[in-house]
Write a structure and sequence with these properties.
- This protein is of the alpha/beta class.
- The protein is built from three helices and six strands, in the order αβαβαββββ.
- It has a six-stranded mixed β-sheet, with helices on one face.
- A hairpin with a 4-residue loop joins strand 4 and strand 5.
């Protein structure tokens, strides 16, 4: 197991599929990561979403925007809950990359950084988005 091989791991990237992005499952995913990687400072999650919306329903752009907002909220909320549950204060950055298919084109990215005043993760403004440090990552497909 990766936690036994690298017990003080600080950077972690994993890939999850669309079904793992359901709020109840997502909560479990983040709780497992946070519980098993207590020294984690930087987390990147790559999500294979398939098509975000059905092109036949209403206004395409409204559905895309609503879908992205919901996905962003679900990931942010699930990770915040996991951090609170496990009293983790080390995580500094969190990035979610959504792809229509793994290996395909990037659909959207969400970036979060620790707000030093409260210690919670907040949505990062474009200029505040950190370089995730790809050379320091350990990857694992979930």
């Amino acid at each position: 197991m990766i936690t036994e091989a690298c017990p003080r791991l600080t950077h972690f990237q994993c890939a999850i599929e669309r079904s793992a992005s359901q709020p109840a499952v997502l909560q479990t995913v983040y709780e497992t990561i946070v519980e098993n990687l207590p020294h984690l400072e930087h987390l990147r999650v790559v999500v294979d979403m398939g098509a975000l919306v059905d092109h036949q329903e209403g206004s395409y752009f409204q559905h895309v925007k609503r879908s992205r907002d919901n996905i962003q909220h679900n990931h942010h909320h699930a990770l915040e809950d996991a951090l609170h549950l496990h009293h983790n204060q080390k995580l500094e950055t969190f990035q979610v990359d959504l792809f229509r298919s793994l290996g395909g084109e990037l659909e959207v990215q969400f970036h979060f950084v620790k707000d030093n005043s409260e210690g919670k993760l907040v949505v990062a403004q474009k200029m505040d988005r950190p370089d995730f440090g790809m050379d320091a990552l350990v990857s694992l497909d979930v």
